[in-house]
Amino acid sequence: MVVPELRAWRAARPHVVRVARTVKPHVARVTQAVRPRPVQFTTPQLTAVAATVGLALAAGAVAAAGPWDSTGQRTAERDWAASREGEGVADHGHTSATSRKSPQPAPSAASVLAGLGGSTSTVPAPAEKALADVLDPLLDNAVLGATRTAVVVDVATGKRLYSKNADEVQIPASTTKIATAVAALTAPGPDHRLQTRTVLEPDTKEVVLVGGGDPTLTARKDAEGWASLRTLADETATALKARHMDRVTLSYDTSLYAGPALHPIGVNENIAQVTALMVDEARLDDSTSGTAGRALDPAADAARKFAELLHDKGIKTTSPGPSKATSRSQALASVSSPPLSALVERMLTNSDNDIAEALARQVALASDEQPSFEGDAKAIYAQLKKLGLPLSGVDFADGSGLNRADRLSADLLTALLAKAGDPAHPELRTVLTGLPIAGFTGTLSTRYTDDPTATGVVRAKTGTLTGVNTLAGTVVDTDGRLLAFAFLTSDEAHPPNALEARAALDHTATALATCGCR
User: Fold this and answer.
1) Are 231 and 274 in contact (CB under 8 A)?
2) 114 neighbors 480 (Cβ within 8 angstroms)
3) Per residue in 268-309, pLDDT tens?
4) Which residues pair with 252 in a beta bridge?
5) How far apart are CA 277 and CA 141, in angstroms?
6) How many Cβ atoms are within 10 Å of 210's Cβ, its own excluded?
7) Where is this region: Disordered (predicted)?
8) pLDDT on residue 451
C-alpha cells in the first residue's frame, strides 16, 4: 500500500532538508563546546525553554507554508528546535547576521509568553529593593557615559519594578525600531502585504513598474519566501505575449512616497534612499543585512534589473524612465511581500534600517499622513498615543533610529514591550519574537557568546550611535518571571568606548536573568 504524502509535509519538506543540512556540520563542534562548562538553570527557566522548543515544533507544519527569512531571523529558533532531537545545540547556520561562533552551552531563547500563563502567576515578581541593589551598581559604571536611564517591568502585571530617570528622554538609536514595529502592527496591521505590480497603459505599449514600498523585494534566484522580481518579470512577460506584444516602453512609478528620499544622515552604507521601489535594498553586494554600498538611485536600479529579466523572457524594452501609472491602466502582474509581521521580525532581528523606514511609511499611509519622514513621525506618535503609551517628551524624527533627533524614554520602551506581551494585543506579538536572541541571532549573535547564563535567555534590541548605547528587551529571571527592560546610556560630549559600554549593558541584562531578587 502506498501512503500519499500529506500536503503539509510536501510544503515543509524543503525546509526540513535545509534544517538538516544546516545543523549537521555543527553538531559535533557544538557538542564538544557543551562538555567543559555545564550551566545550572532554574526549573522555571528550563520550563520556559522547553515551552519555546515545543511551540516551535508544533508550529513547524503550519509555518512551512509561510515566508522563511533569508537572513535566518524566523528560521533560527525553528532550525534549532528541530535539531534538538538527540543532536545537541545548533548555531542556526551561518547566513546573514547569525554568528559563526558557537555559543557556550545554553538553552534556546525563553518563551516570549513565559510569565503570562498560570504557571508563573503564582511566582512573586522580584522585590524592588533587591532589584535596585543589583542594578544600581551596574548602571553606575562609568564606561556607560554621563547619562543613564533604565526601567524594568513585570510583563505579566505591567508593574514597574525598577526605575532610574524613567521619564527622561534620550537618543534611543535603533531601539526606536521597537516603536516603529508596534505602530506598524497597529496600523496597517500584521497581515498587511506590500504589493509591487506592473500595468499597461491603454492604447500604448507603455509598461509601468509600480513600487509598493517593499524593501524586501528580491532579484535573487532563490527568493526564499520574499516577493520575487523574477516572478514578476515572468508573469509580466506572459501577460504581454498573450497580447502579442514583444517590445514595450518601460517606465517606473515611485509616487507612493512623498518628500525627500535621502535620509537626514545623508549617503550612508547603513541605509538606501527611501523610495517606493527598490530591489534587495539597493545593495551592491550579495549581503542581506548590515552595511553595504547602495545604488544611488534604487528605483532606477530596480527598473534596469527588471528590464534585463524581461529581455531574458523575450520582451525587449526601452531604457526605463520615471513615470506615473494612470487610473486607466490595465493590470498585468503583481507580487506581494510576506505579511508585515514577518517584515517586523526581520527588521528587529537584523536592525534593518531600510525595512524600518518602509514600515514607517506604511504607518503614515494607514494614518492618512504624508508618507515622508515628517509624516511618518506624526503617524507613529499618533498610533502609540491610541494605545495609551507614555509619550511625555517623546519625539520621532524617523523610523529607524539613525536620526539623532529621535527622543525616547526607558519608560516608553518597556511599555511598548509590555504591550506586545499583553494577551489583549496578539497582533503585536512579533515585536517580542523578532527581538535578537543573545548569542544566536541578529545583532546579538556575537554578544553573550561567552556568557552561558544569558545565551539564549536574553532577547533584546540593540542601539548604537556615536556616544549612544542602548539595549531594550525581555528576559526570564530565575523564578520564571518574564521581565521587560530598557537601558539607555549616552555621553555626546565624551563618547564612551562602544565595546566597553555594550559589555556593561550586556552584563546588566545578564544580572536580570540570574536574579531572583528577593
Assistant:
1) no
2) yes
3) 999 999 999 999 999 999 999 999 999 999 999 999 999 999
4) 209, 322
5) 45
6) 23
7) 67-117
8) 81
- For the chain, give the longest Cα–Cα distance: 77
3-state secondary structure of 41: coil
DSSP letter string, 211-230: --S-TT-B-SS--TTS-BHH
Distance CA 399, CA 362 (A): 11
- Give 474-491 pLDDT, tens digit per residue: 999 988 899 999 999 999
d(CA 312, CA 77): 38
Cβ-based neighbours of 402, under 8 Å, separated by 6 or more: 174, 263, 264, 265, 268, 270, 271, 353, 465
DSSP string, 255-283: TT--S-SS-TT-SBTTB----S--SGGGB
Count of helix runs (H) and strand runs (E) in the chain: 15, 13
* Global pTM value: 0.82
Containing H/E element for 461?
Answer: strand 459-465
- The runs of H, that is alpha helices, within 287-352 are 298-312, 340-350
Q: Which residues contact 239 (CB under 8 A, 6 or more apart)?
A: 198, 200, 332, 333
Rg (C-alpha) for the chain, rounded Å, is 24
**Beta pairing class for 247-253 and 316-317:** parallel
Cα dist from 483 to 161, 303, 425, 432, 460, whole Å: 9, 47, 17, 12, 11
Residue by residue, DSSP assigns 78-98 as HHHHHHTSSS------SSTT-
What sections of 367-482 are H helices per DSSP? Answer: 373-386, 410-420, 430-433
Report how far residue 515's alpha carbon sits from residue 518's, in angstroms, rounded to the nearest whole number: 9
C-alpha cell at 151: 526601567
Could you give the 3-state DSSP secondary structure of residue 124?
Answer: coil
